[in-house]
Amino acid sequence: MTIFLRILQLIAKYGKRAIDWCWANKDRILNWIRNGMAIDWIINKIKEILGIR
Predict the structure, then answer these.
(1) 52 in helix, strand or coil?
(2) Distance CA 23, CA 14 (A)
(3) Number of neighbouring beta carbons within 10 Å of residue 53
(4) Domain of 27?
(5) Residue 42: per-residue pLDDT
(6) Which of 37, 40, 8 is nearest to 24 (CA)?
(7) DSSP reduced 3-state for 15
(8) 44-49: long-range contacts (C-beta < 8 A, 24 or more apart)?
(9) Averaged pLDDT, groups of 10, the chain, 53 residues long
(10) 53/42 Cα distance (integer angstroms)
(11) Is 15:24 a contact under the CB 8 Å cutoff?
(12) Most exposed of 13, 15, 17, 42 (fewest Cβ within 10 Å)?
């Protein structure tokens, strides 16, 4: 859960929409963490899903 909160801190600069998406998809993000995906990969994937450059 600590890593999830760190991801929230890093994604916060992209706005409320990004934070809301993370909370709504917490299980997906935790699964990525559990599968060993790097934090930068997770951030990039969230940005890709949300269409953020």
Answers:
(1) coil
(2) 14
(3) 5
(4) 2-50
(5) 98
(6) 8
(7) coil
(8) 46/7, 46/11, 46/18, 46/21, 46/22, 47/14, 47/18, 49/21
(9) 96 97 98 98 97 91
(10) 14
(11) no
(12) 13
Which residues are CB-contacts of 53 (< 8 A; sequence separation ≥ 6)? 47
Both tokens of 24, joined, read 């709504």
The tally of domains found in the chain comes to 1
CB 11 within 8 Å of CB 46: yes
Are the beta carbons of 4 and 46 closer than 8 angstroms?
no
Q: What is the pLDDT of residue 53?
A: 84
Q: Name the residue among 49, 47, 48 with its Cα closest to residue 12.
A: 47
